[in-house]
Amino acid sequence: QKEVEQNSGPLSVPEGAIASLNCTYSDRGSQSFFWYRQYSGKSPELIMSIYSNGDKEDGRFTAQLNKASQYVSLLIRDSQPSDSATYLCAVHPGSGTYKYIFGTGTRLKVLA
Amino acid sequence: EPEVTQTPSHQVTQMGQEVILRCVPISNHLYFYWYRQILGQKVEFLVSFYNNEISEKSEIFDDQFSVERPDGSNFTLKIRSTKLEDSAMYFCASSDWTSTGNEQFFGPGTRLTVL
Q1: Residue A95 scores a pLDDT above 90
Q2: Distance (Å) from the alpha carbon of A107 to chain B's nearest alpha carbon
Q3: Which of A13, A33, B64, B103 is the most buried (most CB within 10 A)?
Q4: Measuring CA to CA, how many Å separate A104 from each of A19, A53, A90?
Q5: Which residues from chain A sit within 8 angstroms of residue B9, using beta carbons?
Q6: Residues in chain B whose beta carbon is closer than 8 A to a beta carbon of chain A?
Q7: Residue B99: pLDDT above 70?
Q8: Which of A56, A62, A70 is nearest to A19 (CA)?
């Protein structure tokens, strides 16, 4: 059974701080990794995708991938109250499947 | 910016009734998906659709479920005889697999309530 694990939180950070969200996955052959933001009662919104080991930056967001450790993370710099949401890690296991496997999500609370 | 749209936003039905959830994927995308999320739980894959046929389905997607692309724009999910446990948010997603990736974009969802 392929799994994606996240700490459910809540992770509370003060406004302006860096929020660090983590995700581990069980399938070593996984190829593609995604972070989605989901506000309560809304749909997942794609924030970042990452396919290669290392860091990928987009504005205030940095995704980090370490395939050897089967670990993906998302850093949010200068956190804002509007960043308060659940962050979902999704993994595409690789060839032969089309689906994403989602983690349960980490709830982030940015305190003003 | 192109987006996935879904209708209705909320559907209430009686147990045993048929429901059809509708989606309009992003226009140049070729891969379509349905996921569901039971309240407080993970987003779960139901089915993927490509080239007018199902390319993959999960264990959840049993004989009570079907998908169809009746025209060039709509993509539908039908639940033939709804059960209480079908109550969930249903998300349609679409993607365009390229050499750089396979990002799936989600619609706003349909909240299905089975009474």
Answers
A1: no
A2: 12
A3: A33
A4: 18, 23, 10
A5: none
A6: 31, 33, 41-45, 48, 50, 55-56, 58, 89, 91, 100-109
A7: no
A8: A62
pLDDT value, residue A1: 74
**A 44-83 near B (Cβ less than 8 A):** 44-46, 49, 51
Residue A87: CB atoms within 10 Å: 24
At B12-40, the pLDDT tens digits run 999 999 999 999 999 989 999 999 999 99
CA distance A103 to A72: 12
Give chain B's largest Cα–Cα span.
45
Query: For residue B100, what are its two tokens?
Result: 């750089």
pLDDT score, position B100? 63
Tell me if A12 sits within 8 A of A106, measured CB to CB: no
Nearest to A55 by CA among A28, A77, A27: A77
